[in-house]
Amino acid sequence: MSEVSPQLIDRLLAISRALAGHIDPGSAFRATAIEIGTLIPHDHIDLAVLSLDGRMHACYEAGFHTSWSDLAQHPVEGSPIRRVLWGEMPYLLTDNALVDDRFHFEGAFDGPIFAAKLRSRIIVPLRARGSVIGALNISRHKAGCYTQDDVDIAQQCADLIGPYIFALIQTEEARRAMLAESEARNRAELLRVGASQLTAGMERERRRMAMDLHDQTLADLARIARQVSAFRSRGVARTAQLADLEQEVAGCLAELRHIVDDMRPSVLELFGLRDAVEAHLNRSVARAKPPIAVRIADSSDGSADSLSETLRTALYRIVQEAINNAVRHAEPSRIEVQLASTPGTFSVTVTDDGHGCGAVDPAAQGGIGHMHTRAALVGARLHFEPASRKGGTRVVIEIDREPTAGRISARGDAAAEGQPVAEAV
């Protein structure tokens, strides 16, 4: 166009005013679409905005929506307007896009052109900092509606909104990066604090085991030693005395085996997670008064066997603590453990019909805090919820069966390796 009319200047100023105050590209574009419509009537209008690497693009639509905006991003190589996005053509103008081969090629995402009957089309590039960052696409159902003058006006609109849209996208990307960094810092701090609490808990557990050994096992062994010494001094021992001595030794062995099993669950290593959980469940309720009914159900088809030793041990310890909490504090009449799996997830659910645990603080010290820390260390998801309206607690532990980004390596971190953090308590 050789000159710009006052009416066009007024409309461009109106577009500029419509942009003001918006903080995301979609709302900013929708605000300008109305003003653009006063210059170039349309039935459909959208923006295709390139990703930072130029390989994908997002679509922002105004008015009615098509499947172009159903997905977050599309590959540029499949876009009907890729030649404009790649900078190979200065614009596209067509009287009937339904039959224009420039919009249709093998692999083209051109379905919306036919579904919405977008015949007349103008596509002009959006530019910022001297580069194409996207395209403005204007369409009508009727064929043969647009001219070269309309292309020139569309380009002026695109030149006006392009830098603003680009700035909003950059701001949005910076905000996402900041949030991701903040979340990463929070996760790191949670793991640091949790690992510290877990270490303190381990020390308390070691002291408890030392006292158990001193007060119980070592005392029993000292008494046995005195009995053996007495038999030797007398030179003879009656059968009943030997039977009592044998029983004392058997008791010491059982106590030591129990302590060792608590330190490193041999049933888990030999027979797997299901049998280890069942053994601990039965042992935990063996002396309960009144008795506690138990049930274990496994619909996982052996999925736990595909998990690493570190993950199985962490899951066992979390389930162990959930069972212990129910037995010690909830006064349940029934505890049920359910192992289940989906194609990508393995889960263990511990349900009791006791008093319930109320609101759970993940940062709390003690057993529940240790459960959350163990879950965080291996990338598991841990949930506490009411078992029913009548009460009770349901503890759900879920873990992805395939390794995920950001999970602590089973080989690369002592805390996850089981050296002491994941297995010692």
From TrEMBL:
Ranges that cross the membrane: none
CDD domains: HATPase_UhpB-NarQ-NarX-like (cd16917)
GO cellular component, one term: membrane
Keywords, alphabetical: Kinase, Transferase, Two-component regulatory system
Record-annotated GAF domain positions: 24-175
GO MF assignments: phosphorelay sensor kinase activity; protein dimerization activity
Domain Histidine kinase/HSP90-like ATPase residues, every copy: 310-403
PANTHER family: NITRATE/NITRITE SENSOR PROTEIN NARX-RELATED, SIGNAL TRANSDUCTION HISTIDINE-PROTEIN KINASE_PHOSPHATASE UHPB
Protein name: ATPase
